[in-house]
Amino acid sequence: MAEVALRGVSKSYGNVDVIHDVSLDVGQGEFVVFVGPSGCGKSTLMRMIAGLEEVTRGDVLIGGERVNDTAARDRGVAMVFQNYALYPHMSVRDNMAFGLRNIGTPRPEIDSRIAKAAEILQLDRYLDRKPRAMSGGQRQRVAIGRAIVREPKVFLFDEPLSNLDANLRVQMRTEIARLHHRLDATMIYVTHDQTEAMTMADRIVVLRAGVIEQVGAPLDLYERP
Ligand code: ADP
Ligand code: ADP
Q1: Considering only Cβ atoms within 10 Å of each terminal Cβ, which end of the chain, N or C, has fewer?
Q2: Backbone angles phi, psi at 203, to 5 degrees
Q3: Could you tell me whether strands 16-27 and 154-158 are parallel, antiparallel, or unpaired per DSSP bridges?
C-alpha cells in the first residue's frame, strides 16, 4: 500500500488550473523528488499533501486514508520550508517544542523527542541559542529538527537547501539522506537542483505545467544514451 497517494488531483485558483489530474503512489520509506521549472506546481502539490492547501478535485490519501478534509496537524506529515519558518526570538529548544506544546504533548515526551532530534542533527550544543544568532545551515537543521519531533510518517521538503551555499548544500544532502535511512520515513522532496535530485531520489517525478511528464529512477531519467 502506498504511504502517500494522489488520485486524480487537480487544483484551480479561480479559473486558473495549476494542477491537472495528477496521480502518483509513493511507497513507505521511499524518497521521491519532484523537479520541474518554476511555476509548474511543485509547491502546490506539496502543500495539498501537507493540508496547507485545499484540493479542488481528486483525493489525497495518506496511509491509505483519504485526508482531503483532515487538518494539517492530524495528517502525520511534517514539512520543511526553504526559508526555515523559525521563530527568531525563541530558543532552538522552544522552536522545536512549540508545535508539540500546542497539541498537548507531555513535557517529558517533548524533552526526549528534542534530545533525540538534537542528537541526530548534532544540535545538542545549540539548544539554548536563538536562530537569529545561527548560520543558515544550522537554522535549516533546526527546521528539520522541528519536523523530526513531530514524528511524522511523511516528511515534505520544499527546496530546503536553496538558501545555502554550495558546500553546505552538499553536507546537508548527506545529512538528509542519513536521516532518511535512520528514520525509515517516507520523504517527498522538491528541488530544481539536478544533482540533488540525482543523488537523493529513489524516484524522480518530472512536473511540467501542472502535469506529471515523467516518472523514473534517476538513471532512467538522466543517463540513458
Ligand atoms: P512551483 O513550486 O513549481 O514553482 P507553484 O506550485 O508555486 O509552482 O505554483 C504553480 C502555479 O500556481 C504558478 O503558476 C503560480 O503562479 C500559481 N499559484 C500558486 N499559488 C497561487 C495562489 N495562491 N493564487 C493564484 N495562483 C497561485
Ligand atoms: P498552529 O496551527 O497554531 O501553528 P500546530 O500545532 O498545527 O499549531 O503547529 C505548530 C507548529 O508546527 C507551527 O509552527 C506550524 O507552523 C507547524 N506546522 C503546522 N503544520 C505543519 C506541517 N504540516 N508541517 C510542518 N510544520 C507544521
Answers
A1: C
A2: -140, 140
A3: unpaired
CA atoms within 13 A on the CB side of 138: 16
Q: Residue 174: how many CA atoms within 13 Å on its side-chain side?
A: 5
The pLDDT assigned to 222 comes to: 75
Q: Which residues of the chain register pLDDT less than 70?
A: 223-225
Tell me the best of 48, 100, 102 to mutate to test the pocket of ligand 2, counting ligand atoms within 8 Å of each CB and taking the most.
102
Per the CB < 8 A criterion, the answer to whether 95 and 86 are in contact is yes
Q: Specify the pLDDT at position 200.
A: 95
Phi-psi category of 22—alpha, beta or left, where left has phi over 0 and alpha has psi -120 to 50? beta
Residues with CB under 6 Å of ligand 1 are 13, 18, 36, 38-44
Ligand that comes closest to the CA of residue 74: 2
Task: Write the CB contacts of 14 (distance below 8 Å, at least 6 apart in sequence).
Answer: none
Report whether residue 71 contacts ligand 2, using a CB cutoff of 6 Å.
Answer: no
Cβ of 99 below 6 Å from ligand 2: yes
Q: How far is the CA of 21 from the centre of ligand 2 (A)?
A: 28
Task: Give this prediction's pTM.
Answer: 0.90
The long-range contacts involving 62-71, CB below 8 angstroms and separated by at least 24 positions, are 62/3, 62/4, 62/5, 62/153, 62/154, 63/1, 63/3, 63/153, 64/1, 64/2, 64/5
CB 78 less than 6 A from any atom of ligand 2: yes
Contact indicator for 88, 134 with CB cutoff of 8 Å: no
